What we know:
Blueprint: H1 9-64, H2 69-97, E1 108-111, H3 112-127, E2 131-135, E3 141-144, H4 146-162, E4 168-174, E5 178-185, H5 207-211, H6 219-229, E6 233-239, E7 243-251, H7 255-263
Parallel strand pairs: 2-4
Antiparallel strand pairs: 1-3, 4-5, 5-7, 6-7
Helix pairs in contact: 1-2, 1-3, 3-4, 4-6
The structure holds adenosine-5'-diphosphate.
Adenosine-5'-diphosphate is lined by residues 159-160, 163, 185, 187-190, 198, 203-205, 210, 215-221, 244.
Keywords: ATP-binding, Cell membrane, Kinase, Membrane, Nucleotide-binding, Phosphoprotein, Transferase, Transmembrane, Transmembrane helix, Two-component regulatory system
Region (Disordered): 248-267
EC number: 2.7.13.3
Amino acid sequence: SFQKIDIKPDAKDELAQMSHTFNEMMELLEENYDKQQRFVSDASHELRTPLTVIESYASLLKRWGMKKPDLLEEAVDAIYDESQRMKGLTKQMLALATGEPDKTVILQQIDLVKSAEDTAKRLRQAYRREIVVTANEKPIYILGDPERIKQLLFIFVENGLKYSDDDIRITLDQKINNVVLSIQDKGIGIPKDDIPNVFERFFRVDKARSRQTGGSGLGLSIAKAIIDAHGAKVDVQSEEGKGTTFRISFPQVNKKQNEKQSGGEKV
Ligand code: ADP
């Protein structure tokens, strides 16, 4: 039969304490659940770009198959590179899920003009949109992690594509003391008050506006981690309705090294 529980005055406190603890536990669980949900949606978002590229090349291959040897090589290269990128992304997503983004980079001398041209080619293919690359010199060397630099370019150019309808311009400037990479779009722009927050994790300007584009507010926080890891600096110029320019300034590679590299000598 039903057993009555007698609550003595001091037991009441214990019960209150217990229910308090229980509520706290529930909150923690809920919070973690939210974080997990968010992680899953972020991960799928970030993995979508390389998947889009792989998908579009695979469908070209299906259509043209062996009939176009040039395409075959380009497609296989693209599919391989993008799978590598997905692998890197999953690693970074996991790092983000567990706390700090993975800031390790393996620096080597790379030609930023080539990285930009490769990225533009990939994204033109995937999105059927124009991406214009201009450089005041060719090649322009920086000390960079090739995979991370590609990821960085993808994030900025993809944002440009997402938040504008016009062409995207990538500009490379070899200056006396540094190398400046700019990514410019003529899109919706970022409200002045929001500019300082765009590199924060999960920050999105306008949830309703941004939801249509299916972002996560994670891209630019990954980009910032990559910029920091390269000892580079970023600034944002943006005007609502006019467009946005992100400028990333990389430290200069030792000029001598530069000459040796282009002269084909051993360093
Ligand atoms: P998301 O996945 O939402 O694009 P990001 O971290 O890449 O996340 O960007 C954060 C927010 O900054 C975006 O939601 C968007 O509101 C704004 N933003 C980023 N790039 C641009 C751009 N080129 N033009 C306009 N707004 C931008």
